[in-house]
Amino acid sequence: MTPLEKLKAHSAEFRKDIVNPAPGVYVAVGYAASNVAMVETAAGLVIVDTSESTTAAENILSEFRKISSKPVHTIIVTHGHRDHLSGIRVFCEDGKPEIVARANMHNELVPPKVGVAPTQIRVKRAARQFGIPLQAHTERINIGLGPAERPIKGLGDGFIEPTRFFDGDALDLEIGGEHFELRAAPGESPDQLFVWMPERKILFAADNYYHSFPNLYAIRGTPYRDFTVWADTMERMHGLGAEVMCLGHSRPVIGAADIAERLGGYRDAIRHIVVETVKGMNAGLTPDELVEVVKLPAELAEKPFLVEYYGTVAFAVRAYFAGTLGWFDGNPTTLQPLSPKAQAERFASLAGGEDQLFAQLQVAAKDDPQWALQLADQVIQLGRHANAARRYKIDAMVRLADQTVNAPVRNYYLTCVKEMREALEAGA
Ligand SMILES: [Zn+2]
Q: For the residues of 168-222, what is the DSSP string, one character each?
């Protein structure tokens, strides 16, 4: 299978479905980027996460209402990412359910009340990562952990402040005879929690596991996600002995052995990346050098749940470096680099002039798309062939998009292609 065919096959993971992995437990998959789970209890419904838009939440609620007419008793928000808390208002209906989250819940895509944050660029880059302006199925195959198509109306609109924030690591709830153990589970985000139903051995793992190599860094732009803490959380979830695992993204998993293999595999993959990256860093390797040598061992790389549909090993390696050593790669050359323009001028002079550099771009464009991108950036800096270079850059990104199994990378390329085409047309 080509990478593109593989990514297309992965869409089956997000087919629209109300999955019923255990009696009284339902998970809406494929209605939004993220899932919503419902647990029926004698006292009413417990909802785990609420999806990314009010429209998706309404669609899911209407499916749930075919199953149960009980009132919503409690809504649990596993973490502050937009795709989990934007349907809260919908699931409240006309009632006043308890809405529970950890005290450190934080949404990176909402401007802070005090001070400044690069929210605008995060939102723009998130739109690229998720391929928001792209055609579903042909351009945006899926989003790596969610379907190609989902309603965008009401995206981010339905947030209501939780009624109960809990400090510390644990909160135990008893609702209609069922026990829900909420546990701090820092990993994909520091504010994450998982929900454990001990008697029934059901785990709601939120976003610390999905069927892809973990997104230890999101190209939309995120603060450092602590790798060691994430691996430790996997260890704790692995130790529970869950027999049913419901997820924030992708389909539930049933069976203790399968669940243990996946949670243990995530833990081992993250720890392996840390150990190997640290080894390389201590040997003085830069991020560009590290990504050439740090790989998953074969026994992990061949696991279907560690395919790089969403996160990638290379991005993880770079993120670990940046998160622990910062931006400086250690090479004195990079302390005071030439400006992009000054560098391009010198490249052109090496090539024999601006026209010759552009001619090299035309050669690279035939079958060396990454080199074509790098050359195109130089030519664009110089000006004379800038728009022609932009067209070569577009072609190279289209080619690279089809060569990756990673949905965020594909979507990022193709959204930038769209942006550049629009800018060229506007300027023409
Ligand atoms: Zn999510």
A: SSEEEEEETTEEEEEEE--SSSTT-EEEEETTTTEEE-TTS--SSS--SS-TT--
Contact between 146 and 33 under an 8 Å Cβ cutoff? The reply is: yes
- Per-residue pLDDT band at 428 (split at 50, 70, 90): low
CA separation for the pair 331, 211 (Å, rounded): 37
Instruction: Label the pairing between strands 202-204 and 193-197.
Output: antiparallel
36 CA distance to ligand 1 middle (Å): 11
| pLDDT, mean of residues 105-114 | 78
Please report which confidence band the pLDDT of residue 87 belongs to, taking 50, 70 and 90 as the band edges: very high
Distance, CA 34 to ligand 1 centroid (Å)? 6
Q: CA angle at residue 123 from 117 to 128, to 5 degrees?
A: 140
Q: From edge to edge, which strands make up the β-sheet containing 36-41?
A: 17-22, 25-29, 36-41, 44-48, 72-76, 98-102, 164-166
> What is the 301 CA–ligand 1 centroid distance (Å)?
23
Separation of alpha carbons 246 and 35, rounded Å: 9
Query: What residue segments make up the domains of the chain, in order of their start?
Result: 3-267, 274-329, 338-427
Model confidence, pTM? 0.95
Q: How far, in Å, is the centroid of ligand 1 from the Cα of 2?
A: 27
pLDDT one-digit tens code per residue, 47-63? 999 999 999 999 999 99
The CATH architecture that domain 338-427 belongs to is Alpha Horseshoe (1.25)
- Nearest CA to 309 among 216, 214, 417, 415? 214
427 Cα: distance to centroid of ligand 1 (angstroms): 38
Q: Which residues neighbour ligand 1 (ion) by CB within 5 Å?
A: 34, 81, 83, 207, 248
Q: Which residues contact 12 (CB under 8 A, 6 or more apart)?
A: none
Write the single-letter amino acid at 221.
G
Mean per-residue pLDDT for 353-380? Answer: 98
Domain 3-267: assigned CATH number = 3.60.15.30
